[in-house]
Amino acid sequence: MSSSNAIKKLSKAARIILVGAPGVGKGTQSNRLITRYPQLSSIATGDLLRDHVKNKTSLGQQADAYMRGGKLVPEPLILNLILTELTSRSWITTDKSNDEIIATLGKGTTIQPSESPDCSFILDGFPRTATQAQALTHVLPMNLIFHLMTPAEIVVKRMSNRWTHASSGRVYNVGFNDPKEPGKDDVTGEPLVQRDDDKEETWRRRLSTFEETSVPLLNFYRDRSPDMVVDVQGNSSDEISPQIFAEIDKRFA
Ligand code: AMP
Predict the structure, then answer these.
(1) What is the pLDDT of residues 78-103, one digit of tens each?
(2) Cβ of 226: how many Cβ atoms within 10 Å?
(3) How many angstroms does the Cα of residue 78 sit away from the middle of ligand 1?
(4) CB under 6 Å to ligand 1: residues?
(5) What are the φ and ψ backbone dihedral angles of 248, each rounded to 5 degrees?
(6) Alpha carbon distances (Å) from 38 to 16, 31, 121
(7) Judging by DSSP bridges, how do beta strands 171-173 and 162-164 pair with one another?
(8) Is domain 15-247 classified as CATH 3.30.930.10?
(9) pLDDT digit string (tens) for 110-166?
């Protein structure tokens, strides 16, 4: 697909959210978007949280049990995480502390983002609920929401085939990205494991949480502006990417 390999320049600031069930390939789409539009960067709250858990920070210790149980991390924790990240990347500038911002959300505190195309970004995994979306709108208004849709049975099959090398994070997929020796990491030969949240039971819990929260989330944005939300359907990432690219090219390139 030559059009998907082309590098494109944005002429307007894109502030994009990817909404989709766990395992639908939001991370894959983020990576492809960053390659195609080098002005874009990405924040994946799941990755940030996993780093906190791995580094045993206080936030990570508080988030760990929720993540293991396939539950959403409580709102104040996740808002703290996202505000720290946005400030450290200079996507928002403020002299207020996170606690002060969270305490005054919706009471006239709005931080205007830069409209330079170089300040374009994707949020992956945040906001997940209408309340998070509302909080984000006060801090940083987004301008395009993609709703990625893949049938649940296809996602389940994909997840159950995914094996990880725990210490490096290398991921293998049975059937199309197999390890050289079944069940073993190519580089170290160590055994592969299934990530707790790749297990079907955990995944089904996460899916039902997603279904409960994503409807009000998408409605929140549709109510603000119907053309802000774009539904994209596909059975694989390769079916989804060209549709996303076309929409971004149309609006921001
Ligand atoms: P992900 O890798 O995006 O599927 O996230 C993994 C886990 O991190 C989720 O199951 C939640 O426990 C937690 N998490 C990530 N993003 C959020 C969010 N926006 N709000 C609450 N919890 C989150």
Answers:
(1) 988 988 888 888 777 778 888 888 88
(2) 8
(3) 9
(4) 22, 45-46, 49, 66-67, 70-73, 78, 125-128, 132, 206
(5) -70, -40
(6) 14, 10, 10
(7) antiparallel
(8) no
(9) 677 778 898 899 998 899 899 999 988 887 889 999 999 999 999 988 888 889 999
